[in-house]
Amino acid sequence: MQVVAFIGLGNMGGPMALNLQKAGFQVQAFDLNKDALAAVAADGAIAAGSAKAAVQGADFVISMLPAGKHVIGLYQDVRSDIKAGALVLDCSTIDAQSARQVGALLGDAGIAFVDAPVSGGVGGAKAGTLTFIVGGSAENFQRANDVLSAMGKNLFHAGEVGAGQIAKICNNMLLSVLMVGTSEALQLGVDNGLDPKVLSEIMLKSSGRNWTLELYNPCPDVQPNVPSSNNYQGGFMVDLMAKDLGLASECAQQSQSSTPMGALARNLYVQHQRQGNGKLDFSSIFRFFSKK
Ligand code: NAD
């Protein structure tokens, strides 16, 4: 049986670790939070007493942590405990520079590394339908296939180490721009007497069509089973979108890229977050424009 060390068992990591366990991998898990660790241990994972203990003898090491500093700190701490020939996959959303730094520090110890950030949220993590966007060599992308397939449905190879993180923030920056644009267009229609359902149907068949209109309408009660029709509960939090837009902004500064729409979306999301909406779904940016 192949052994996977899984570090970081939060909203995403907990269900991902359980899907690995269900797929027949032996999971050696660790989280600083004892409750999170106990929850996966109850489903058959081995609860390790430390990250160093979790990586012992593992064929794969997966991390799902909040930010770059946590990921760098973890691998500085455990790199000498990871067995030779193991493959490390960091699935957190972090800046590409930190991902490359981790790749280099593991590479110096002869350990293979890919960054593999995800799209699909907590629902996708639970259902095992995540999309993984992988940065690393073609050989390591191939090696990652079985573990990633146990947790997800779509696997993409974006390029070398760090490329997964870049592709992920490009996508989320575009998503935020689409969400803001769709929200302001819908509210403009409503302010001028249109029914948002009718306007959504018209735009869905016209050139303004986009993912948010199709599957994630931000205006309450236009679509069933989306966060906007459930008081913006569940889904992808404003806090996380603001974090990803911060990463996109840092990335743009480093490459001297012009991202005016992304910068504006970031400012709107940060303001929305500061008004106490950080835990709401990111489609709640609609409220920024609506009068209610
Ligand atoms: P979370 O805060 O729920 O979980 C993070 C976990 O890491 C916590 O349980 C925490 O105790 C643990 N942790 C922190 N430092 C640690 C350390 N040094 N050693 C061991 N455990 C440690 O966060 P999440 O929602 O699961 O997100 C994790 C990552 O996935 C983030 O980078 C996030 O941006 C990304 N992401 C989240 C979503 C989402 O919808 N939640 C979607 C896509 C990507």
Q: Any overview of this molecule?
A:
It is an enzyme of class 1 (oxidoreductase). The protein is of the alpha/beta class and 292 residues long. It has helices at 13-22, 34-41, 51-55, 68-78, 96-108, 121-127, 138-149, 163-191, 196-204, 211-215, 238-255, 260-277, 286-289; strands at residues 3-7, 26-30, 46-47, 60-63, 87-90, 112-115, 118-119, 130-135, 152-159. It has 2 domains: 3-160, 3-Layer(aba) Sandwich (Rossmann fold); 166-289, Orthogonal Bundle (N-(1-d-carboxylethyl)-l-norvaline Dehydrogenase, domain 2), CATH 1.10.1040. It is elongated. The mean pLDDT is 97.
Short descriptors:
292 residues; 3-hydroxyisobutyrate dehydrogenase; three-stranded mixed beta sheet; binds nicotinamide-adenine-dinucleotide; 3-hydroxyisobutyrate dehydrogenase activity; branched-chain amino acid catabolism; NAD; N-(1-d-carboxylethyl)-l-norvaline Dehydrogenase, domain 2; alpha/beta
State the distance separating the first and last CA atoms: 56 Å
Main sheet: which strands, in order across? 3-2-1-4-5-6
Query: By CATH's scheme, which homologous superfamily of the largest domain applies?
Result: NAD(P)-binding Rossmann-like Domain
Q: What's the level 1 CATH class of the largest domain?
A: Alpha Beta
| Gross morphology | elongated
Please summarize what this structure is:
With 292 residues, the chain is α/β, with parallel strands linked by helices. The protein is 51% helix and 14% strand. Helix 4 (68-78) runs parallel beside helix 5 (96-108), helix 8 (163-191) crosses helix 12 (260-277) and helix 11 packs antiparallel against helix 12 (260-277).
